[in-house]
Amino acid sequence: MTMVAKKGSIPTPTTKHMGLDFDKVYEPAEDTFLLLDSLEADEAALLATGALVRGDVKDGDAEGAVKDGLTLEDLSLTDTRTDSRTGPRLCLEVGSGSGVVITFLAQLVQKLSPSGQDCRFIATDLNPACVAATGKTAEENGVGVVVDAVQCDLVAAVMDDVAGKVDVLVFNPPYVVTPSSEVGSQGIEASWAGGVDGREVTDRLIPLIPALLAPRGLFYLVALDENFKEGTPEDLRTAIPGFTCKVVGARKTGPEHLKILRFSEEF
After folding, report:
1. Positions of E strands within 114-233
2. Which of 89, 109, 239, 252 is the most buried (most CB within 10 A)?
3. Total-model pTM
4. Do residues 240 and 217 lie in contact, with contact meaning Cβ atoms separated by under 8 Å?
């Protein structure tokens, strides 16, 4: 399935400022573009995150919820109703590379919702060149003020700050099958070295997802069919207890069969 750009779609963020830095930073490719297309096509799901939902409100939040137009009776119900504060409040990308994805996501969220201007965007990468590139890409595309780039392994430096608060988490992991010794470097090879079965890095992040996501939060993962010798990427639906998994994008590029999986908590 190939995503077709919609009328009025957001253009891919420019990387002209990168110059020759692509010898240190992963250059956006088909997996990147599939992820961008899938995020934009999934705008309804993105808008449903971060909003006040009946049944999610704790006692201490009741007074503020009433001020926002919901009655105490409303808060006791379990069906979904959102207030005007739709859309995510905190987005996180793990392994940001050039910064194209987090920059695009910031532009998309700001376009979709009036409250998008208040959303916080965090990007992490182990490669210091990628951290610098992410900050520069966000700046060059007009969202530098809202994007913070942090150098760390997965979410090590931000976990305490973001745990339980992430409305949208995006991960395009290294998925090339390599020796385990190549995983975790701070050079450009970190962008593709996936270790055994190409899943060593992915398998390290998966267990952290429930602790990272806010209620109604979404996790988007780029997965490669070829990394699942006895199944398909959708088999990951059982990897996160209490979450459902849906394919929201797919594309064949050369010998690779790429998919975008969206995980969301079951209610």
Report:
1. 120-125, 147-151, 166-171, 213-224
2. 109
3. 0.83
4. no
Cα–Cα nearest to 90, from 215, 253, 250 = 215
Strand boundaries in 161-239, DSSP class E: 166-171, 213-224
Per-residue pLDDT of the chain (267 residues; tens, 9 = 90+): 333 344 458 999 999 887 757 888 988 999 999 999 999 999 999 999 975 443 443 433 433 333 333 332 332 323 333 445 578 999 999 999 999 999 999 999 999 988 888 999 999 999 999 999 999 999 999 999 999 999 999 999 999 999 999 999 999 998 878 888 888 777 787 777 778 888 899 999 999 999 999 999 999 999 988 888 776 777 777 788 899 999 999 999 888 899 999 999 886
CA 179/CA 159 separation, integer angstroms: 28
